[in-house]
Amino acid sequence: MGSFVVNIVTPDGIIFDHHAKYLVANTAAGSLGVLPNHAPLISPLEIDAVRIDLEDDSDHKSEWVAVNGGIIEIRDNVVSIIANSAETEENIDIARAKAAKIRAEEKIAAAKEASDHGIDMDRAEIALHRAINRLNVANKRR
């Protein structure tokens, strides 16, 4: 069937670099499944989990990466994801993600109480989405 290379890069450097046989990512246009020899494509990514089925995985376990937006590019059997931040499932600090979720929920509640639906509310909603994404990915490793 073949494989392709998956690279996930953040401003902190490369966080994932492996051969894969399948990848699923959530783009602005919807869910995207990638197999070897995929047509070239560039698309913005949503805040969501990226599932990667590794080429050498004999027990059919998927790797999960929490990606907080960014861009996916597919070209010549290389999938490159460039994200502001991303964490592999084993690198997620669950306590920190839970604390971020609680802070975001408190900010959203305060903004609703004050009828303030401005930039702070938008930022809190994005922070909540990111925290939930990280917790969802962390829970996949259990």
UniProtKB/TrEMBL annotation:
What are the ATP synthase F1 complex delta/epsilon subunit N-terminal domain coordinates in residue numbering?
6-86
**Which residues lie in coiled coils?**
85-141
SUPFAM superfamilies noted in UniProt: Epsilon subunit of F1F0-ATP synthase C-terminal domain (SSF46604), Epsilon subunit of F1F0-ATP synthase N-terminal domain (SSF51344)
Pfam families registered for this protein in UniProt: ATP-synt_DE, ATP-synt_DE_N
A molecular function GO annotation: proton-transporting ATP synthase activity, rotational mechanism
**The organism sits in which domain of life?**
Bacteria
UniProt topology in membrane: Peripheral membrane protein
The UniProt keyword set, sorted, is: ATP synthesis, Cell membrane, CF(1), Coiled coil, Hydrogen ion transport, Ion transport, Membrane, Transport
Which residues does the UniProt record annotate as the domain ATP synthase epsilon subunit C-terminal?
A: 90-138
| Gene Ontology cellular component annotations, sorted alphabetically | plasma membrane; proton-transporting ATP synthase complex
Record's NCBIfam families?
A: ATP_synt_epsi, PRK00571.1-3
Give the protein's function. Answer: Produces ATP from ADP in the presence of a proton gradient across the membrane.
Oligomeric state and interaction partners are given as:
F-type ATPases have 2 components, CF(1) - the catalytic core - and CF(0) - the membrane proton channel. CF(1) has five subunits: alpha(3), beta(3), gamma(1), delta(1), epsilon(1). CF(0) has three main subunits: a, b and c.
Its name, as the record gives it, is: ATP synthase epsilon chain
